[in-house]
Amino acid sequence: MTHTRAAARSRIAVLATLLVALLAAFLAPGRAAAASLQEVTGFGTNPGALRMFRYVPAGLPAGRPVVVALHGCTQDAAGYGTGSGWTQLADRWGFSVVLPQQQSANNLSDCFDWFQSGDIERGQGEAASIAQMVDRQLADVSGDPARVYVTGLSAGGGMTAVMMAAYPEKFAAGGIAAGLPYGCAQAAGSPYVCMYVGATQTPKQWGDRVRAARPGYGGPWPTLTVFQGTADYTVKPVNMTDLMKQWTDVHGADQTADVSDTVAGYPHQVFKDAGGNPVVETYSITGMGHGQPVDPGSGTEQCGTAGAYLLDVNLCAAYRLGRAWGLG
User: Fold this and answer.
1) What's phi and psi for 245, nearest 5 deg?
2) Is 84 considered catalytic here?
3) I need a labelling partner for 104 at 20 to 30 A (CA). Which of 46, 56, 129, 253 fits?
4) How do residues 223-279 score in pLDDT, each as one tens digit?
5) CA 80 to CA 68: how far, in whole Å?
6) Reduced to 3 states, what is the DSSP secondary structure of residue 295?
7) Is-contact 127 171, C-beta < 8 A?
8) Catalytic residue among 96, 129, 154, 284
9) Which phi and psi angles does 294 have, rounded to 5°?
10) What is the pTM of this model?
């Protein structure tokens, strides 16, 4: 009996050692433990009446970047965070994600109100709520205020342009998928005209709308990357052209691409300022409809999950943005 107990204890000790080794390997640098989405309340006055969710990889050290990811219409924070690939990349590369969520009381289709004057101006509405989320996140996780990025799909892309314009000092860069330039609804006279036709503005007129959002601000302005499907009939491709015109003008660059090549088989352009710094980058996703480009799989350049408005086109927008921003 004693011999049996000793053998059992020995086996338990071996199993415990193996378990400790497995845990150590799993929690090794570069392999953060899986985390879960958390809701944060009381993050500010929240004039836009939005909800704040966040994803923070376990054991995330201080001084890491923060990505704000804004869902599209009919989506929510959790679905977009996972589907776009941002939470997957947060675990892989070590950064936190803020995921604002619209409420149906604000918009029946759960779209961010990128077209409402009271929600797109500094200090007001939804824009102010998102800015408060950024401040709360930086404080809670001791994030790097110089490495905060904002990105979104469709209406979330429109709100991304809003945040870049109204709070440029908070963001190093922005990424827009199937979105719209700042002030587009006001320039076109209607959000639907903006989406389906576009607004007739010169680059300077587009740039002036951004400059008016933050009077007296001298820069630096966030850089911009845009992804747009050529077969998108909800937000017409002209909006990517207008975004390029708007933000090259803000950066004092011209509208002639300095780099024209292909990435994953898709036309890709880079626009540089007078100092040779890339300030606007565009990806024209041939044949893609309305949605966010994803590339499900386990490869190093793959991320995201296909679903409604999350389109598998063998290019993951979140990965491309993360690389451009130096996240991984």
Assistant:
1) -60, -45
2) no
3) 56
4) 999 999 999 999 999 999 999 999 999 999 999 999 999 999 999 999 999 999 999
5) 12
6) strand
7) no
8) 154
9) -130, 165
10) 0.89
